Amino acid sequence: MSTLAHTMMTAARSADSGLAGPGELDRYPYAEAATAGRVGIPSWDSADPELGRVGRRAAGSRGRGLHGQLVQQLGQMIVSGDLGADRPLVPEEIGQRFEVSRTVVRESLRVLEAKGLVSARPNVGTRVRPVSDWNLLDPDIIEWRAFGPQRDDQRRELSELRWTIEPLAARLAAGHGREDVQQRLTDMIEIMGHAMAQGDALTFSRADAEFHSLLIQIAGNRMLEHLSGIVSAALQVSGSPVTGCDRPNEASLAHHGRIVDALAAGDGAAAEAAMRQLLTVHPEVERVVPAPREH
């Protein structure tokens, strides 16, 4: 096994990295709006009683810390519809419900605002925004939708989007081959092979995500490159449509290998065809390969 393969397989077993900073959205305080007489204040009693204090939510928090865990919880509640559009979010009530500080609440709401889930306005406060305003390409929102009531729509949309993005990226990447990139793609296949042999689904998934992300990045199209995070999120969402990537087996590795061979040969058509084969849904699964829908 190469040094890279060994390093990645070891790293895959470590804890995930923390959440990125909330950005420059500190335009005004969230808690200044008066709460007296406020209509439609959300009831936190509907939240999972076992969640209790946010600090206890180790599982699923991905090592993000208190504010990241609160982002996760509030984001899931908004996406699931537990906190409907235009519902006010009162920082003091959130802090009391989840037993976190005002600072943690403020930072969490900033992150949710950056994702388009909430808006904060002077003299109005913070409110949940409608679905049309959400950043549906945000990896966190992709994950939350995939585990909520919209799971079927999210999986279908992800599958359709991958079928739009990745075959094109494979074709374009064939014209931008470099030896170092070819080697890294080959390394990812090697990692997947070793992970499959050891039954290490986590390492396989991460190497697979790296393979597809790298392929998009070398396509030479910066707009496509911005979509690489979507593909990574799609690959890491459990229960997504079953493709050659979702079921580690020799056929999946072979398709990945054909893509790399086509890239090395500069054959865009072959690279595109190999990618389409890789994304083909297994015949025993009812959900079929996405096709144009009639309007």
Short structural description:
The protein has 295 residues and is mostly helical. Helix content is 52%, strand content 3%.
Task: Output the keywords.
disordered C terminus; mainly alpha; 52% helix; three-stranded antiparallel beta sheet; elongated; 12 helices; 295 residues
Any overview of this molecule?
- The chain is built from 12 helices and 3 strands.
- With 295 residues, the protein is mostly helical.
- A 3-stranded antiparallel beta sheet has the order 1-3-2.
- Helix 2 crosses helix 5, helix 6 packs across helix 8 and helix 11 runs antiparallel to helix 12.
Percent of residues in helices:
40-55%
Mean pLDDT, as a whole number? 75
Number of strands: 3
Beta-strand percentage?
A: under 5%
The dominant shape is elongated
Structural class: mainly alpha
Largest sheet, spatial ordering of strands:
1-3-2
Low-pLDDT segments? 12-42, 46-63, 238-242, 282-295
Strand-helix topology:
Layout lengths: L2 H9 L53 H16 L7 E2 L1 H8 L3 H13 L3 E4 L3 E4 L10 H8 L4 H23 L5 H20 L2 H17 L4 H4 L2 H9 L13 H15 L3 H11 L17
Helix pairs in contact: 1-7, 2-4, 2-5, 3-4, 5-10, 6-8, 6-12, 7-8, 7-11, 8-10, 11-12
